[in-house]
Amino acid sequence: MALRRKKTxxxxxxxxxxxxxxxxxxxxxxxxxxxxxxxxxxIGATKQQGVIAAIIDSATGQRxxxxxxxxxxxxxxxWELVNGSFVFVEQxxxxxxxxxxxxxxxxxxxxxxxxYLFKRCEANRRTQPAG
Length: 131
What we know:
With 131 residues, the protein is of the alpha+beta class. It has helices spanning 9-22, 24-34, 68-76; strands at residues 38-52, 58-64, 79-97, 104-120.
């Protein structure tokens, strides 16, 4: 069995930086530094898992997340929230015929995604420029 080498502090810092740069907040900071006038991002709000019970029924299980902390962090990067909208993105479904009846049980799986549009707002900038 091969032993894993422990990552150096520099490697850990580089990985953290990479994760931040791909996040909505990291992309907002980069856009502000480039001089962009608008910024758009999407954040998953609710995941819905479809479940069909063995005998009788169908149901859904939901897992929610609150995007407010991310939205506030984007605003602190120098942006003002202009608009937000939500869509349900279907990712699949399960179906099973009803017993002793016509029709079928259907359980839909998917995610509610929030799409947010920001405009540049110098007064909201709370972070120091990179460099």
